[in-house]
Amino acid sequence: MRKHNFSPGPATLPQEVFQQAADALVDFNHSGLSIAEISHRAPEFVQVIEEATSLVRELYQLPDYFEVLWLPGGASTQLAVAPMNLLGLNDSMAIVDTGFWALRSIDAARELAQVHVLESASATHYDRIPKAWNLPADAKYLHVVSNETIEGIQYHEYPQVDIPLVADMTSDFLSKPLDVDRFGIIFASAQKNFGIAGITCVLVNTKVLPVNSDRKVPTIWDYQTHIQNQSLYYTVPTYPVYVALLMLRWIKAQGGLREMQNQSVAKSSLLYDEIDRNPLFEGIAVKEDRSVLNACFRAISPEVESQFLEYCSQNDVVGIKGFPTVGGFRASMYNGMAMESVQHLVQLMKNFKPSL
Amino acid sequence: MRKHNFSPGPATLPQEVFQQAADALVDFNHSGLSIAEISHRAPEFVQVIEEATSLVRELYQLPDYFEVLWLPGGASTQLAVAPMNLLGLNDSMAIVDTGFWALRSIDAARELAQVHVLESASATHYDRIPKAWNLPADAKYLHVVSNETIEGIQYHEYPQVDIPLVADMTSDFLSKPLDVDRFGIIFASAQKNFGIAGITCVLVNTKVLPVNSDRKVPTIWDYQTHIQNQSLYYTVPTYPVYVALLMLRWIKAQGGLREMQNQSVAKSSLLYDEIDRNPLFEGIAVKEDRSVLNACFRAISPEVESQFLEYCSQNDVVGIKGFPTVGGFRASMYNGMAMESVQHLVQLMKNFKPSL
């Protein structure tokens, strides 16, 4: 019996994807080989990574001057790699402090360049996206965390600025269509919306890469290295790429990014409607900035909270406890989350009778 | 029907390990969850990584002052990360040029520090390990590539020096017992001897970490970050760690590192004996430095070579073509390679009748 897993990431994938991935681990396409024992340079694997790349290009309708890279290290590594590649030694970038991942981005970028923190949502405990701020003239790009996984807030409209956006999109990559031309770099770890932990998809708008930088980027972290080698400069994590391919095929078969967005909105609306209706619960973020991927909410008292957690646990719901800094509950509903699981959770909220 | 896969990496693992890994991808320990959808901070996964760590400690009998890290990025990333962590801005390290991976190490280290190349085997096309050289007094450590995967040469005795060794052990990690006290850092990608691509095991001798360095190592690449966070500073590639755990359990059940060494020697001796006996083939490396993991050999003519490749392909042997710079054949026989596969290959060599 499958659990209903609302974990924030690594997160659930459709059962059929896990099953296909498991089958290929034992015998890939009746080849007598596991997909994981095939060389990253063998034609069979090169086909896998090329198909994954072309599906990302197709789903996002990427222009030719965008490159798709498959790299290890997660979005956390890109928080250092992106400034290294985009900023000279005396350059600066700008960022809005939207929460946990914005703070990580600020810390990582400050080790490498000047950082302008334009505004912070800390005064309201990161329950909203700050929208009123001034961009300094010297900022080379604006870093945005498109969705703050921990606080459950999301940009539904990206800031209108004249410089490129660099986006950590780990928690909403491939969850809706995008006007990619406004972005310089987009990166996302796979383990939320399109795979398992171990691979990062990086979209590089080659128009924003500096031609002459006074910073010497080590070869292993230079985007040019991986563009020139089509992500095969070193052994790419082959199996995580394969699982990403299976998810990309699944996303396309579902109907692409517009359909992913429809499903995200449908799932999260069902849950937020119950949060707003049910007098035992309340949402944490302001409504206009609520994330459609991570719904953060709390119960009317700590006592009711622990009773509901226990009730969830008895009824096959896992991964719903909120992050310690926020508390309460967090229900993560990425691409791989079935509507049936959200319906199950909402039914539990309706049925739940705390003993007060 | 399983193929006999002699690929240099990603490489074959025991069928039972692939099967266990596939089962856990669909349903981990009858939990109703895939191992890949469990949070890296959940107790179920923390148990996985802690067991993997303690098995590495046990197999290598690591002293307390060694830390075991699980990091993304492969050994190639460590070629930059190790010098960043160990060397100040004006420090130098030494290295012997033993082949492809030594050259990569030299290039990566030169971007960060002074590199003394002590000796090179290039004049003899990297068919041997240079053993006569002088160590400069200012070298902080000696980098060694314990086994050169591409050229098929291996250190059977490590150099006797008074400074720590830093070893890229990707192709012979966990393949024999080791006197770890002579090493400062040991790192290895998993996809040869103990798992699938996507995770790197790094052993850090904390005695060699500099206390005050004038180099500011970015947090994400600072060994101290990952020591303090027990490899969970960011989302570790959970599934590759799980597969590594299965391989570590398998290695222990086989009898540990002494038994891995016995098996490696038995497999490679069987093959080298046939290479030396059979007038159609000849070994490439000098005998005393031959790798027990990667046997490089060629046929007496290009014509015979392509006929034998074809014969292998018709008889379920794959991954045996040599690297372009070396040519000929390369049979890789890591921990996961069954003796039966080597016996099968040797029998093919005996049966092979080229049409001349």
UniProtKB/TrEMBL annotation, chains A, B:
<dbReference type="InterPro" id="IPR022278">
    <property type="entry name" value="Pser_aminoTfrase"/>
</dbReference>
<feature type="binding site">
    <location>
        <position position="149"/>
    </location>
    <ligand>
        <name>pyridoxal 5'-phosphate</name>
    </ligand>
</feature>
<dbReference type="InterPro" id="IPR020578">
    <property type="entry name" value="Aminotrans_V_PyrdxlP_BS"/>
</dbReference>
<dbReference type="InterPro" id="IPR000192">
    <property type="entry name" value="Aminotrans_V_dom"/>
</dbReference>
<dbReference type="InterPro" id="IPR015424">
    <property type="entry name" value="PyrdxlP-dep_Trfase"/>
</dbReference>
<comment type="pathway">
    <text>Amino-acid biosynthesis; L-serine biosynthesis; L-serine from 3-phospho-D-glycerate: step 2/3.</text>
</comment>
<keyword id="KW-0963">Cytoplasm</keyword>
<keyword id="KW-0663">Pyridoxal phosphate</keyword>
<feature type="binding site">
    <location>
        <position position="101"/>
    </location>
    <ligand>
        <name>pyridoxal 5'-phosphate</name>
    </ligand>
</feature>
<keyword id="KW-0718">Serine biosynthesis</keyword>
<feature type="binding site">
    <location>
        <position position="41"/>
    </location>
    <ligand>
        <name>L-glutamate</name>
    </ligand>
</feature>
<feature type="binding site">
    <location>
        <begin position="75"/>
        <end position="76"/>
    </location>
    <ligand>
        <name>pyridoxal 5'-phosphate</name>
    </ligand>
</feature>
<feature type="binding site">
    <location>
        <position position="168"/>
    </location>
    <ligand>
        <name>pyridoxal 5'-phosphate</name>
    </ligand>
</feature>
<keyword id="KW-0808">Transferase</keyword>
<feature type="modified residue" description="N6-(pyridoxal phosphate)lysine">
    <location>
        <position position="192"/>
    </location>
</feature>
<feature type="domain" description="Aminotransferase class V">
    <location>
        <begin position="5"/>
        <end position="345"/>
    </location>
</feature>
<comment type="similarity">
    <text>Belongs to the class-V pyridoxal-phosphate-dependent aminotransferase family. SerC subfamily.</text>
</comment>
<keyword id="KW-0028">Amino-acid biosynthesis</keyword>
<dbReference type="InterPro" id="IPR015421">
    <property type="entry name" value="PyrdxlP-dep_Trfase_major"/>
</dbReference>
<dbReference type="GO" id="GO:0004648">
    <property type="term" value="F:O-phospho-L-serine:2-oxoglutarate aminotransferase activity"/>
</dbReference>
<keyword id="KW-0032">Aminotransferase</keyword>
<keyword id="KW-0664">Pyridoxine biosynthesis</keyword>
<protein>
    <recommendedName>
        <fullName>Phosphoserine aminotransferase</fullName>
        <ecNumber>2.6.1.52</ecNumber>
    </recommendedName>
</protein>
<dbReference type="Pfam" id="PF00266">
    <property type="entry name" value="Aminotran_5"/>
</dbReference>
<comment type="pathway">
    <text>Cofactor biosynthesis; pyridoxine 5'-phosphate biosynthesis; pyridoxine 5'-phosphate from D-erythrose 4-phosphate: step 3/5.</text>
</comment>
<comment type="subunit">
    <text>Homodimer.</text>
</comment>
<dbReference type="InterPro" id="IPR015422">
    <property type="entry name" value="PyrdxlP-dep_Trfase_small"/>
</dbReference>
<comment type="function">
    <text>Catalyzes the reversible conversion of 3-phosphohydroxypyruvate to phosphoserine and of 3-hydroxy-2-oxo-4-phosphonooxybutanoate to phosphohydroxythreonine.</text>
</comment>
<feature type="binding site">
    <location>
        <position position="191"/>
    </location>
    <ligand>
        <name>pyridoxal 5'-phosphate</name>
    </ligand>
</feature>
